[in-house]
Amino acid sequence: MIKKLLARKPAPKWGESIVFYCKDCEKTVETQQVGRKYVYKCKVCGTKNVAFGTPRSIKGFFHIEEEGKK
Ligand SMILES: [Zn+2]
């Protein structure tokens, strides 16, 4: 019932709280979506070696100390 609904974690909103991290560039980058799949290409180097997640999870996982610059 209600408990079940609350147990489900809300999915992150795309384009809002998601950042992309290129493992080749070793930094967060802009990406281009490939097809309709959840595959993203780095706009800087062109590889698909891109991870994505919330800024906090990406920074934690890849140990990024630098704050995002815009
Ligand atoms: Zn790259």
Properties at a glance:
alpha+beta; flat; two-stranded antiparallel sheet; 3-stranded antiparallel sheet; 5 strands; binds zinc ion; 2 helices; Rubrerythrin, domain 2; about 20% helix; about 70 residues
Question: How would you explain this protein's 3D organization?
Answer:
The protein is an alpha+beta fold and 70 residues long. The protein has a single domain (15-70), classed as Rubrerythrin, domain 2. Helices cover 20% and strands 23% of the residues. The chain is built from two helices and five strands, in the order αβββββα. The protein has a three-stranded antiparallel beta sheet with strand order 2-1-5. The chain has a two-stranded antiparallel ribbon with strand order 3-4. It is flat and about 40 Å long. The structure holds zinc ion. The site of zinc ion has 8 residues, from loops. Zinc ion (ZN) binds at residues 22, 24-25, 29, 42, 44-45, 47.
Assign a percent range to the helix content.
Answer: 10-25%
- Tally of individual helices: 2
Strand order of the largest sheet: 2-1-5
Encode the helix/strand succession as letters. Answer: HEEEEEH
Largest sheet entry = 3 strands, antiparallel
Put the structure in a nutshell:
It contains 2 helices and 5 strands, in the order H-E-E-E-E-E-H. With 70 residues, it is an alpha+beta fold. The longest helix has 8 residues, at 55-62.
SSE topology sketch:
Blueprint: H1 2-7, E1 19-22, E2 27-28, E3 31-33, E4 40-42, E5 50-53, H2 55-62
Antiparallel strand pairs: 1-2, 1-5, 3-4
The protein binds zinc ion.
